[in-house]
Amino acid sequence: MTPTTVSGPSSDLQAVLERLVEIDAPSAIALVRALGAAAPETHTSAEECLRAALDEDRRLDVEVDEMVSRARAAQTAFEHWTDERVDELLRDLAEAFATRAEDLARATVQETGLGNVRDKTEKNRFASLTVYQSIAGQTAQGTIAERANRRVTELASPVGVVFGVVPVSNPVATAIFKTLIALKARNALILSFPRCALRLATTVGEVVRRELAAHGAPGDLVQWPAKRADRRLTRKLMSHEGVSLILATGGPGLVRAAYQSGTPAIGVGSGNAPAWICADADLARAARAIVASKAFDNGLICGAEHNLVVDERVIEPFAAALERAGAAVLTSDEAGRVAPFLVDADRGSIRREFIGQSAARIAAAVEVRRTYDVRLLILRVPFAGSADPYAREKLAPVLSMFAVAGEDEGLRLCRALLEDDGAGHTAAIHTTNLARIERFARAMPASRILVNTPSAQGCCGSTTGLDCSMTLGCGTFGGGSTTDNVTFRHLLNVKRVAHHIERRDRPVPGVETVIWS
Predict the structure, then answer these.
(1) Which residues contact 322 (CB under 8 A, 6 or more apart)?
(2) Which residues fall within 8 angstroms of residue 414, CB to CB, at 6 or more apart?
(3) 1 found inside a domain
(4) 360 & 427 share domain
């Protein structure tokens, strides 16, 4: 039966019934029966809406069941591939994506309207070749560790079917990354793309399918809903008993839904990284790093700097260094004029039309003019507490700059910024003092403490020794399950084979001791 399409007041009823059917179908049926008894004149419309909602729900159930069933069968066939054979597949996948990196970047910008082609090209190459190089040659099955002194052997097994949600800000790079780490661990993967990126899903999926076929791998190892991106479909996949693990990259609502689905999940939180510029920092180097980081892909990296916390003793020379690096540090008059245009007062955040747009475009829109090409807009503002939109995550080439009087105040403000928005993600410091770095690291509720490096590149392992990753855990600081940069190791079940040993310090009553040395 074709679902009934309604408009006007009935469309509201249909939406309510669709949501209720998703949560509790018997209650939806009971509601329509009650409406029929209480208001017979509305019963026909309600019954039609309910029938449409139930038909659609059943269709989605069949679609999800079939997709997961194919994924499980493909994973079972793939599970016994050797590490060497898997790495050969991953190498060719990575090279295929790297070859198409610029074309995919251009298509991403055209489809989503976010970011820029140059930086998305670099991001696609990082997510393919750099990630591949970081995991190739590593053992992902069988014996992965032996602890001879304890007679414990660790064995790795795939988790099964992984459901990976990709964000609109980085749909292609995140999809490439999740494909590589899922297959490295010999899992099947179902990807969910945002509605505005469904054509990208097909393009990415076709590249994957060609390489799978070339290597004799099951085609259903990597799947994606190609014709729709629907909240109900996503929720059904999250809660399906055949899905083993969710990798959720997206907004807070999506990550919360993943954790509430009943399926084990790894989710990431929002970023709001403070960057503490200490009095002893190399100001020119720090300024270049920050502009290169926050301007990258038009500010879409959640792990980039969002707030500059600057020792007041160096704020003037640092502002000058920022301008030499290509930033426009707004005057107080400019900041007062621009702020109402940049911020959506109702949402308390940067206006949607500025998200992922270039600094030059934003500067032109808010009538900020400089004699050089503007790469970043910086507002010197007083800290106004947690309600201040300039103290929150800004997915645009826009930064707040706060002055602080000394070390204690700098630490307090950095911590307050993280606790308000971005707990668990990333914090950065620019200093030459090792004791100050340790104090900062101990004080910050952040999973990554970056030192003298661009934050957007450092948090993902491009300019640091962190694991190369596009999924950055926030730990319990941010309501997550891990503080790690997520990689293939998080997509493995590790079994431990433990032999009986003599415990001279703790003998076990009634058990014959076996002496082993």
Answers:
(1) 287, 290, 291, 329, 376, 378
(2) 274, 276, 309, 427, 440, 443, 444
(3) no
(4) yes
Q: What is the pLDDT of residues 324-369, one digit of tens each?
A: 999 999 999 998 888 888 988 778 788 999 999 999 999 999 999 9
Q: Which candidate in 302, 414, 459, 468 is catalytic?
A: 302
Angle of helix 9-38 versus helix 40-78 axis, rounded to 10 = 110
- Left if phi > 0, otherwise alpha if psi is -120 to 50, otherwise beta: which for 506? beta
**For residues 374, 376, 380 and 381, what is the CA-based torsion angle, rounded to 10 degrees?**
130
169, 114 in Cβ contact below 8 A? Answer: yes
Helix (H, G, I), strand (E, B) or coil at 249: coil
Q: Distance of alpha carbon 99 from its chain centroid, rounded?
A: 24
Determine the structural domain holding residue 302 and report its residue range. Answer: 273-472
pTM: 0.89
What is the C-alpha separation between 56 and 4, in angstroms, rounded?
A: 10
H or E element that contains 496: strand 492-498
Say if CB 208 and CB 179 are below 8 A apart: yes
Continuous H helices in 421-470: 434-443, 455-459
What does pLDDT average to over the chain? 90
Q: Answer yes or no: do 441 and 374 share one domain.
A: yes
- Within a domain: residue 3? no
432 domain-assigned: yes
d(CA 297, CA 123): 9
CA separation, residue 295 to residues 40, 266, 315 (Å): 60, 28, 20
Q: Identify which of 98, 116, 264 has the alpha carbon closest to the alpha carbon of residue 176.
A: 98
Q: How confident is the model over 378-418, as pLDDT tens digits?
A: 999 888 887 788 899 999 999 999 999 999 999 999 999 99
Report DSSP letters for 356-375, one per residue.
T--HHHHHHHTT---SS---
Residue corresponding to tokens 């970023």: 271
Annotated catalytic residue 302? yes
For the chain, the domain total comes to: 3
